[in-house]
Structures are given as structure tokens and as C-alpha cells.
């Protein structure tokens, strides 16, 4: 049974968003996902990692973001964690078009919700935020035994 996992901790800088995107694209290709699915995975990982950097850490680049990627035959799981400011009202934060920054679109969680099969946000004010996203892999490949 194919099963694999990655754990990566990196500095909270914008250029590392691209590295996270490349990593998930490589994993998506290895899993034989469609180009469309890979594009969507790149979007959701960008949104979650950018949120950690921009919102969690207020664009401070000397902090750390942790990324965990795991898959088995059933699902691909992506976890992005920061130890930043946290979210006081998660329900409000996840509303479409809500942003605490008037310059921003407030669509990050919308993309995560619509492109992934599960989205879970855990956050504690002044302690940080953990975003977990799951994509099911066996939709067209039901187990035969
Ligand atoms: N990791 C995080 N740490 C703190 N706040 C966050 C984090 N992720 C999201 N948020 C809050 O949730 C809001 C909505 O996030 P999102 O949908 O990505 O929109 P945007 O990034 O455009 O503001 C953000 O404006 C911010 O207030
Ligand atoms: Mg965002």
C-alpha cells in the first residue's frame, strides 16, 4: 500500500510559498493527479501558507511555519501550522469575502473549502493556528476487496 509523509519547517518569508507550491505539485504528480487537481492543491497550499505568514506572523520573516503532507490510498492530508497571533473568531474569519485587512479579498478559506474535501481550522489567540485540509483520492477507484 502506498503511504508517504513529509514534514517541513521553514522561515515565514513569501519566497517559501513557492517552495511549498513546488512540493505539493511534485507530490500531486507522483500521485498521478490531474493538472487541474494539482493547480488547486497549489492554490490551497499558497493560501494557507500565505495566511500563516501575513496574518499569523504579521509579515515577520524570522518566525517558522510548519507544513505536514501525508497520503495513503484514501486521502492526501495537508497541515499548515503557525505559532502566531491566532484567530479570535474562526467562524467570521471563514466567511466568504471576510478579511481583517481591507486591502485583501478574503477568499483564502473559500478556495481551501471549495478545492478540498475537508477543511479544519484550529486556533488559539496568541498561540497560533493549525489548518488541516484533506483531499480524497479514491473517488474513482473503489476498493475491490
Ligand atoms: N494563520 C492565520 N493567523 C491569523 N489569522 C488568520 C490566519 N489565517 C486566516 N486568518 C484570518 O482570517 C481572515 C480570512 O482569511 P482569508 O480567507 O485567507 O482572507 P485574506 O487572507 O484575504 O484576508 C484573515 O483576514 C485573517 O484575519
Ligand atoms: Mg488569505
Descriptive report:
By secondary structure, this protein is α+β, with helices and mostly antiparallel strands. Helices cover 34% and strands 28% of the residues. It contains four helices and five strands, in the order βααββααββ. It has a five-stranded antiparallel beta sheet, with helices on one face. Helix 1 (15-30) packs antiparallel against helix 2 and helix 2 (35-56) runs antiparallel to helix 4 (108-115). The longest helix has 22 residues, at 35-56. It starts with a strand and ends in a 9-residue tail after the last strand. The model has no long low-confidence stretch (mean pLDDT 95). The structure holds adenosine-5'-diphosphate and magnesium ion (MG). Residues 47, 51-52, 55-56, 82, 84-85, 87, 93, 98-101, 104-109, 129 line the site of adenosine-5'-diphosphate. Residues 47, 51-52, 55-56, 82, 84-85, 87, 93, 98-101, 104-109, 129 line the site of adenosine-5'-diphosphate (ADP).
How are the elements arranged and paired?
Layout: E1 4-11, H1 15-30, H2 35-56, E2 64-71, E3 75-82, H3 90-93, H4 108-115, E4 118-124, E5 128-136
Antiparallel strand pairs: 1-2, 2-3, 3-5, 4-5
Helix pairs in contact: 1-2, 2-4
The site of magnesium ion has 4 residues, from helix 2.
Any key phrases for this structure?
5 strands; 4 helices; alpha+beta; single chain; binds magnesium ion; 145 residues; globular; Heat Shock Protein 90; binds adenosine-5'-diphosphate; five-stranded antiparallel beta sheet
Provide a brief overview of the structure.
Helices cover 34% and strands 28% of the residues.
Amino acid at each position: 500500500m502506498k503511504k508517504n509523509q513529509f514534514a517541513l519547517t521553514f522561515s515565514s518569508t513569501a519566497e517559501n510559498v513557492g517552495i511549498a507550491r513546488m512540493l505539493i505539485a511534485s507530490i500531486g504528480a507522483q500521485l498521478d493527479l490531474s493538472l487541474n487537481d494539482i493547480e488547486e492543491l497549489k492554490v490551497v497550499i499558497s493560501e494557507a501558507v500565505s495566511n500563516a505568514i501575513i496574518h499569523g506572523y504579521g509579515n515577520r520573516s524570522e518566525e517558522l511555519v510548519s507544513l505536514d503532507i501525508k497520503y495513503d490510498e484514501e486521502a492526501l492530508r495537508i497541515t499548515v501550522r503557525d505559532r502566531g497571533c491566532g484567530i479570535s473568531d474562526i467562524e467570521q474569519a471563514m466567511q466568504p469575502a471576510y478579511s481583517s485587512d481591507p486591502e485583501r479579498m478574503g477568499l483564502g478559506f473559500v478556495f481551501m473549502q471549495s478545492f478540498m474535501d475537508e477543511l479544519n481550522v484550529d486556533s488559539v489567540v496568541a498561540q497560533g493556528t493549525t489548518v488541516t485540509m484533506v483531499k480524497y483520492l479514491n473517488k474513482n477507484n473503489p476498493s475491490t476487496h
